[in-house]
Amino acid sequence: MAKPKLALYWASSCGGCEIAVLDTELKVLEIADFFDIVFWPCATDFKYDDVRAMKDGEITLTLFNGAIRNSENYELAKLLRQKSVVLCAFGSCAADGCIPGLANFTTAEEILRYVYEDSPSTVNPEKIRPQTEYAVPEGVLSIPHFWNTVRNLSQVVDVDYIMPGCPPQPDQIKLVVDAVIDILKNGKPLPPKGTVLGADERACCDECPRKKDVKTIKKFVRPHEIIPDPEICLLEQGILCMGPATRGGCGAKCVNAGVPCRGCYGPPANVRDQGAKMASAIAGVLDADDPSEIDAIIAGIPDMMGTFYRFSLPHSTLRRKQVRA
Amino acid sequence: MGMVTIRIDGKPIEVEEESYILQAAQTLAIDIPTLCWYRYINPYAACRLCMVEITDKRGRVRMVTSCNFPAEAGLGVRTHTPRVLATRRMNFEMLASRCAPAPVLVDLGKKLGIENPRWGWGEDTCILCGLCVRVCDEVVGAQAIGFAARGTSRTVTTPFEVDSEACILCGACAAVCPTGHIRMEECSGREIVHREITLGPNAAISVPFRQAVPNAPRIDPEYCVHFRTGGCKVCAQVCPMECIDHEDEERREEIEVGAVILATGFQDLDPTPLKQYGYGKLPNVITSMEFERMNSAAGSTDGKILMEGGQEPRSIAILHCIGSRDEKHHPYCSRVCCMYALKFAHLVKEKTTAEVYQLYIDLRSFGKGYEEFFQRILTEGVNLIRGKGAEVVPAPQSRRDEGPLLVRCEDTLAGRFREIPVDMVILCTALEAQQDAKETGRKFGVSVGADGWFIERHPKLGPVSTTTDGIFLAGACQGPKDIPDAVAQGGAAAAQAMSLMIRGEVEMDAACAVVDEALCSGCRLCNELCPYGAISFDIEKTLSLVNAALCKACGTCAAGCPSGAIKGLHFTDQQIYAEIEGILS
Amino acid sequence: MSFEPRLVGFLCNWCSYTGADLAGTARMKYPPNMRVIRVMCSGRVDPNFILEALAHGADGVLVLGCHPGDCHYAEGNYKCRKRLPITKRLVEGMGIEPQRVRLEWVSASEASRFSEVVTEFTEQIRVLGPLKLEDWTFDRAAADAQLEHN
């Protein structure tokens, strides 16, 4: 029997997810052995046309990481969707938009202007910007269109499974790979569509070893402003830890290292908007009744929007900032 | 000890063997004079006035002191034979020759037929009966005083005749002293416990006030001799019903109940901060509660309406709405003041000849019979002035003889400013919620309104119950109300509590919050959110859990749960999202 | 055609929802622009609901709760009072005028206040104009057209 075919693709991403796959150590060999890797631009030399040449549904599984930032990302998302039986949004960018998604706090125009005109290291007196199409004698050259709004994978194509994390933790990847191999080898049923793989149902606090007590917050501080007690919940110490509103599964790596959770595993199962949920949760326990006092505490949250939506802005309820010209 | 029968003056009486003759005689109401006998102290036979003649079982006839001669079977006692009387007279005259004519001695002398003792009267007010020494030793247990010296120089004193630290100043010695030789005086700068001197502590055991419920005395351990020396317990000996238990003490009990009726009442507004009325500064400016107390037959003036100096006032102003219907204090109407103010006017008219001025905003004589009472007051010559009392000041010199207090107000019916000199001002102070109502409310899961009154479940349909099942309200803790209303609400609360108890189970609203244990991460952000304390943290499972019996389904926790683990049944996130999408589609 | 704001109102069951009923039975007039969602307490109002309403086409969101101290559940309205400011900051952070979200206290007896608040809020949103969420939905046709073109 032919080996099942595996594709890995990176759209708008940093490459960390690819490294995470390699970080599964010997499991990579098992993957390479069990699957026929048909497409992995980061690791091996394949052409888009190789994929285009495949039959629909020829690829058994595609692990798609990266957000949809430009027309090329979209094209590949569509292509891989068409060619794959199972398409998995792999990593926080594909799942929720992640760091590239923070661009949704601004516009494509602003980004282009900064990069090609305003950045201190740029010298571009003619204000020349890249054109998506440029006619040369040999024909028309084109580059992808830069979108105004970053999307997550599920907003542009149909996604079967989601594996969150920035990046998904290698241990979780191993477990998922084992499960996939088990399913394929032994003909087991697939989990229901839309299942989140390699992560917990509960929030990050479930894995956090710190001691948790009843919470009231008088003031928010940044981690460098205090020496946090290593045993006690960071939120109780005034450090805005996103753990309560973040899906667990990472093993609470950040909080174990003394750093507050950033929220990379995205919102927990029942939460639509990670930032709004966190806002609601912490606002409820503010130790103030006077409206001006409440306002002062909230104003003390460092980079509130960036903190609440660091990993999930494109997949949040409002998806992007409305920037009026 | 067995019972024996003795005969006193021919009358048989059955007494305990070895009990004393004097007591048996007292039981038979046979009068035997004595100066050194006291019921709760062992007999001492010092005064020798209780002499009686006995015939013992062997037929011997003797003179003995009846106070300490034990009864034996077949004993015959004669208390008034010529020989007995002669002996008593002789003993009395010898006592009189040494002692000053204290009233008790003079009276006793008269009884014995001696107006002028043959050797005259002596000078010592102490008759050396020893009651004081014995009471201090046997009853009080302080042993602070004793006899000193012998013979003619024998005295009662403290050791070395200096103020004794052993004395607890209980006054028992002075109380038992028949001649008044011992007086309680301020000594050693220490507090005197018993100012009115009688045996047994009068301040240490008493009924707090006449209408106290339960109407029973209680012991104040700070003053009770027993709690100071371990002795006394005279009260326990006196009590025929054996009600007094010195070992009983205050204790906290945990009682499991299925229903609670809150009837914590109101507190009176303290008018001191309302400086314009001069309460606490000007004499004879009193609150309505103080006036009530004065009117009580059990009160400080035995029900008489008197000013500070003790004289009857010639005129009284009653100022309504002090602190109520006042935006600076309480916006609400205290509801009871109009009617009790009218009652005050009636009482004043009944008890004194004083002129009464009522200064009111509106007279609210709602309720059965109230308007009729108001109409009756109108016929009693009460001055009704529509206008709130503005201030009370000392009257100027020129008007002082009309009354030392000047009440200023605007008579809104006459349309003019008025100054009324009066002797006394009664402030109808607002009914306020108890200071700790908020705390009490939190304890019982009952909401407290802006004014501090407990909030009922529904102003019309649930005026007795609260949002917490099994907690009911009665009386003024829910809002100002008069006695009939409070009684009615109390009855209703009791009935509702009873119906709950009889059913034995509580019906709960299907709407409540539930924690999805598969989703709860145990972050504990919800723990403090619940105003009803329905959320608890399970340390073993490291989960927060909602107690459905306590939950009132407000949904605050569901909104605040950062991982969406708390579901507000009937108002779930999914339902509300669907509503949002539905109404906006 | 003039702009008719679409408003969502989260009304506490015990105060403003009853107040709205009273306004109705008292035949008081107020604009029909607000669509009401009943919640048991303003403390139930999750910022998520407000964002969801704005995302789904509401031009403004009004949250009505019991006056401070009058909450049926002791302190739910205080929780709401803590959550609303942060929600407004979130909304502002998303580039939406924070005035589109408002919290007011309306008791069960304040029918006239209810109608005043709704009227006033409707007028305020009318002045602000419609909330048009730029790029909220994914324009598949446009994205596909880009691919064709390349």
Itemize the secondary structure elements and their pairings.
The complex is a heterotrimer of chains A (325), B (585) and C (150).
Chain A: E1 5-10, H1 16-22, H2 27-34, E2 36-39, H3 48-52, E3 59-65, E4 68-70, H4 71-83, E5 84-90, H5 92-96, H6 98-101, H7 108-118, E6 133-136, E7 139-142, E8 146-151, H8 153-156, E9 161-163, H9 170-186, H10 253-256, H11 274-284, H12 291-299, H13 304-308
Parallel strand pairs in A: 1-2, 1-3, 3-5, 5-9
Antiparallel strand pairs in A: 4-8, 6-7
Chain B: E1 3-8, E2 11-16, H1 21-27, E3 51-55, E4 61-65, E5 76-78, H2 82-98, H3 103-112, H4 131-140, E6 146-148, E7 155-157, H5 172-176, E8 205-206, E9 218-219, H6 225-229, H7 234-238, E10 260-262, E11 266-268, E12 285-287, H8 288-295, E13 315-322, H9 337-351, E14 355-360, H10 370-378, E15 383-386, E16 389-394, E17 405-411, E18 416-422, E19 424-429, E20 431-433, H11 437-444, E21 471-473, H12 483-503, E22 513-515, E23 535-538, E24 543-546, H13 556-560, E25 566-568, H14 573-584
Parallel strand pairs in B: 1-5, 10-21, 12-19, 13-14, 13-19, 14-15
Antiparallel strand pairs in B: 1-2, 3-4, 3-5, 6-7, 8-9, 11-20, 16-17, 17-18, 22-25, 23-24
Helix pairs in contact in B: 9-10
Chain C: E1 7-12, H1 16-25, E2 34-39, H2 47-55, E3 60-65, H3 76-93, E4 101-105, H4 111-128, H5 140-149
Parallel strand pairs in C: 1-2, 1-3, 3-4
Helix pairs in contact in C: 1-4
Task: Give an overview in words.
The complex is a heterotrimer of chains A (325), B (585) and C (150). With 325 residues, chain A is an alpha/beta fold. Chain A has three domains: 5-100 and 150-186, Rossmann fold; 107-147, no CATH class; 204-308, no CATH class. Chain A contains 13 helices and nine strands. Chain A starts with a strand and ends in a 17-residue tail after the last helix. The relative contact order of chain A is 0.13. The model of chain A has no long low-confidence stretch (mean pLDDT 94). By secondary structure, chain B is an alpha/beta fold. Chain B folds into four domains: 3-112, Ubiquitin-like (UB roll) (Roll); 131-238, no CATH class; 258-507, FAD/NAD(P)-binding domain, CATH 3.50.50; 513-584, Alpha-Beta Plaits (2-Layer Sandwich). Chain B has helices at 21-27, 82-98, 103-112, 131-140, 172-176, 225-229, 234-238, 288-295, 337-351, 370-378, 437-444, 483-503, 556-560, 573-584, and strands at residues 3-8, 11-16, 51-55, 61-65, 76-78, 146-148, 155-157, 205-206, 218-219, 260-262, 266-268, 285-287, 315-322, 355-360, 383-386, 389-394, 405-411, 416-422, 424-429, 431-433, 471-473, 513-515, 535-538, 543-546, 566-568. Chain B has a five-stranded mixed β-sheet with strand order 2-1-5-3-4, sandwiched between helices. Chain B is extended, with a radius of gyration of 37 Å. Chain C is an alpha/beta fold. In chain C, strands 2-1-3-4 form a four-stranded parallel β-sheet, with helices on both faces. Chain C has five helices and four strands, in the order E-H-E-H-E-H-E-H-H. Chain C has one domain: 3-Layer(aba) Sandwich (Rossmann fold), CATH 3.40.50. Helix content of chain C is 43%, strand content 15%. In chain C, 57% of the residues are buried. Chain C has helices at residues 16-25, 47-55, 76-93, 111-128, 140-149, and strands at residues 7-12, 34-39, 60-65, 101-105. Chain C is globular and about 65 Å long. Chains in contact: A-B, A-C, B-C. Chain B binds chain C through residues 441-442, 445-450, 455, 467, 511, 529, 531-532, 552-556, 558-560, 568, 571, 573, 576-577, 579-581, 583-585, and chain C through 6, 8, 35, 37, 39-41, 43-46, 48-49, 52-53, 56-58, 67-76, 79, 83.
